[in-house]
Amino acid sequence: MKMKLATMAVTAVMAAAPAMADLVFPSLSYRTGPYAAGGIPFADGYADYFTLLNERDGGIGGVPTRLLECETGYNTEKGVECYESTKGEGALVYQPLSTGITYQLIPKTTADGIPMHTMGYGRTSAANGKVFSHTFNYPGTYWNGASGAVNYLLAENGGDLNGHKIALVYHNSAYGKEPIRTLEELQKKHGFELSLLPVDHPGQEQKSQWLQIRREKPDTVLMWGWGVMNQVAIQEAANIRFPMENFIGIWWSGAEHDVLSAGDKANGYKALTFHNVGRDFPIFADIQKYVVDTGKAAGAGDQIGNVLYNRGMYAAMLAAEAAKTAQEIHGTADITAAQMRDGMEALEITEEKMAGLGMPNFGPSFSVSCENHGGPGLVGVTQWDAANQTWSLISEFAETDMEVIGALIAEDSGSYASENNIAERCN
Amino acid sequence: MPEQLAFAMEVFLNGLMAGVLYALVALGFVLIYKASGIFNFAQGVMALFAAMTLVGIQNGQVPFAHLINAIFGTHVHTFGWNVPSVFALIFTVIVMILLAWAVQRFVFRHLVGQEPIILFMATIGLAYFLEGFADLMWNSEIKKLDFCMTANTCLPQGINLAIDEFTFNAFGYGFFIDNLDITATIVAGILVAALIAFSQYTKQGRAMRAVADDHQAALSVGISLNFIWVLVWSLAGFVALVAGIMWGAKSGVQFSLSLIALKALPVLMLGGFTSIPGAIVGGLIIGVGEKLFEFWVGPLVGGATENWFAYVLALLFLVFRPQGLFGEKIIERV
Question: Where is the chain membrane-spanning (chain B) (predicted)?
Fold first, then answer.
């Protein structure tokens, strides 16, 4: 009997031991609900990258990774529940994939000592690492997006936007309103006219907004949309014959499913981006070989190379590289969340490193520091080719107006610090 | 003509067109409520399910492909053929009739005689079930809807050039009217005429009205309640399919189609839950009201007024006519 008990105890310890040593990466995904079409490819990309690391490299630094997926349905309450139910599993970093969830998790993750990465969404002023110790939003933020769009227009218009009319069609939510302040500041600086056209959730009916655009004839329409709002806006723009090359969406309005339903009429539509698009990267051969062909892909394998799949994969790559950095800093492969935070703060992404990972020119080179959690804020522009059904990067990852953005970040993060009695770090 | 007046006329016409689309959704609610007293929370999801089924059949998609692949380790996604829209429409109608039968057989037959709130709760459950079932059956990708009666006769979209030119010559400003909205208006007109003719001049239609008036009396003269309810749910399924096609052509067929039900609620409150003409008139009033309010008042208050204004307008009507414009006034004597 004693022998049996001892055997069972040893077996239990052996079974538990690898789980304790795993590097746990929660994935707060949304594969159901109105935004599933965008949530699925991102979640697939995020999962497949970690599967690739396990299958090809045996994990990160020899420690296997474990993905902990939790369905949020893009719902803030469910997102917080997911966080609470998974944080005790040794979670290293959270990617909440929703601005609403991000706002709820900023104080929680800080208190729990778990870092959070909100890549291209969330609270922009979290780029100020002096105030937001556990939140990172590299390599770019919404305010970089707004400035990137204006800089692109400046380049297209000979450096002069005086009298240029810009209409912002935006999701009437905290997310959609994010670029307004930046655009208003840039309006003062560059002299363009800005009109604001909010669209209520979910955005299925936008006739009023597009009739107004037809009447006011703006030179450029910018869009901060998500979900069905994107598809309807692109269709309505096509209906009123608005030139697609003058219609620019934020990176959450520039995936394949946003343009496909409008067919050929969507040809020429543009979207901002902070990473590259397409399948022309060596890493996809490895994903095919080690993940898809072995039947271990997170989805059906049909999303590979799509814009949001690439974004999910890019997020996973940045998380994995931060984990490697943390392992190097602390001299241990089995890192904790606190050590992961240190790794994120010391993260350095170079072109050489990305090329070595099979992702040459996939995103900008950048480094993170204690003061700057937002990265360089470089923004590129992509364009949709309806005939070939492909997105192409049509610009370099260009600098944004950090003079304007930096001041706004300092102001907003300063208010947050004083409201929450946060002493500045990095001194 | 002053420019602002021309703009307002354009907004008015577009409001009418939008109202027709709202009415198309509201019609399905009215049919079921009128015949069975059930407020069908699942009507929006039925539109989604119908549109997904139509596109799935058109594209030769294998139903439950992900499930089949996960269980059997296969990689099947399509049959490799495309089905012409008309045949896909017929197959979809058959699927909606089967759904109506299943809903009646497995849900509402067991709830006969229950309180209306229980029946309403059952439709909420049905909505959630159908959402998941539709995703499982056809997956949650956004699908482009190309509905063509013949190779050259597809659902048109974009500006109607004849109206644009005519109004430009008449008022100095060319109005934008979407060809899809014009088509939806014609289809809605035919649909309403057909529904009224069906309920007035056919045996089944009259039986449906008898059931709507008094279940007990209808039963006593030999009308099968089960049959009538399957018939009504089938008709509501067909209306949902039409609404799904019109809305799906705008945005692609996707989950958000189920949310179009939100647009029908103020229409029902205003037009009454039991009147087919009420759904149409209610839709037109809501459509025009919200568009004109957005045009005149929206810029003063920051825009995005349409969603809440529709409900405010409906509530204003309710203050003066609680049963809605065309609803039945029920007087209970004690």
Answer: 12-32, 38-57, 78-104, 116-134, 182-201, 221-247, 267-288
Residues in B touching A260 (Cβ below 8 Å): 142, 144, 252
- Does B7 fall in a domain? yes
Identify residues of A whose CB sits under 8 angstroms from chain B CBs: 31-34, 36-37, 40, 172, 196-200, 202-205, 207-209, 211, 214-215, 227-228, 231-232, 235, 238-241, 257, 260-261, 263, 265, 295, 300, 302
Tell if the CB–CB gap between A211 and B178 is shorter than 8 Å.
no
- Alpha-helical (H) ranges within A251-306 are 256-259, 283-286
How near does any CA of chain B get to the CA of A9, in Å? 35
- Is the CB of residue B109 less than 8 Å away from at least one CB of chain A? no
How is residue A289 annotated by DSSP? I
The amino acid present at A161, given as its one-letter code, is L
- Judged by CB atoms closer than 8 Å, whether chains meet at A235 and B250 is answered as yes
The number of folded domains in chain B is 1
User: Which residues of chain B are within 8 Å of residue A197 when distances are taken between CB atoms?
Assistant: 303
Whether residue B327 is contained in a domain is answered as: no
3 state SS of B115:
coil
Cβ contact B140–A241 (<8 Å): no
- Closest to B303 (Cβ–Cβ): which among A40, A197, A302? A197
CA distance B328 to chain A (A): 31
Chain B residues close to A232, C-beta within 8 Å:
250-251
User: In which region does residue B163 sit, left (phi positive, over 0), alpha (psi from -120 to 50) or beta (all else)?
Assistant: alpha
User: Domain count of chain A?
Assistant: 2
Look at residues A243, A273, A303 and tell me which one is the last residue of a structural domain.
A273
3-state secondary structure of B140: coil
Please, are residues A298 and A51 in contact by the beta-carbon 8 Å criterion?
yes
If one counts every other C-beta atom within 10 angstroms of the C-beta of residue B97, the result is: 17
* pLDDT, one tens digit for every residue, chain A (427 residues): 455 555 555 444 444 444 447 999 999 999 988 888 899 999 999 999 999 999 999 999 999 999 999 999 999 999 999 999 999 999 999 999 999 999 999 999 999 999 999 999 999 999 999 999 999 999 999 999 999 999 999 999 999 999 999 999 999 988 999 999 999 999 999 999 999 999 998 899 999 999 999 999 999 999 999 999 999 999 999 999 999 999 999 999 999 999 999 999 999 999 999 999 999 999 999 999 999 999 899 987 788 999 999 999 999 999 999 999 999 999 999 999 999 999 999 999 999 999 999 999 999 999 999 999 999 999 999 999 999 999 999 999 999 999 999 999 999 999 999 999 999 999 8
- Chain B residues closer than 8 Å to A74 by CB: none
Contact (Cβ atoms closer than 8 angstroms) between residue A132 and residue A126: yes
Amino acid at B64: F
Structure tokens at B121: 């709760």
- Name the residue range of residue B29's domain: 3-320
B332: its two tokens? 């209970």
Q: How many CB atoms lie within 10 A of CB A24?
A: 18
Question: With DSSP H G I counted as helix, E B as strand and the rest as coil, what are the percentages for chain A, rounded to 5?
Answer: 50, 15, 35
Per the DSSP assignment, residues forming a β-bridge with A117 are A136
Q: Which domain holds residue A222?
A: 142-273
User: Which runs of consecutive H residues, i.e. helices, occur in A191-306?
Assistant: 207-216, 228-239, 256-259, 283-286
Cβ of A199 within 8 Å of Cβ of B304? The answer is yes
Residue B159 lies in a domain: yes
**Looking at A218, A243, A273, which one is the last position of a domain?**
A273
Q: Are residues A234 and A309 in the same domain?
A: no
A263 and A348 assigned to the same domain: no
- Give me the residues paired with residue A68 across strands: A26
The answer to whether residue B332 sits within a structural domain is no
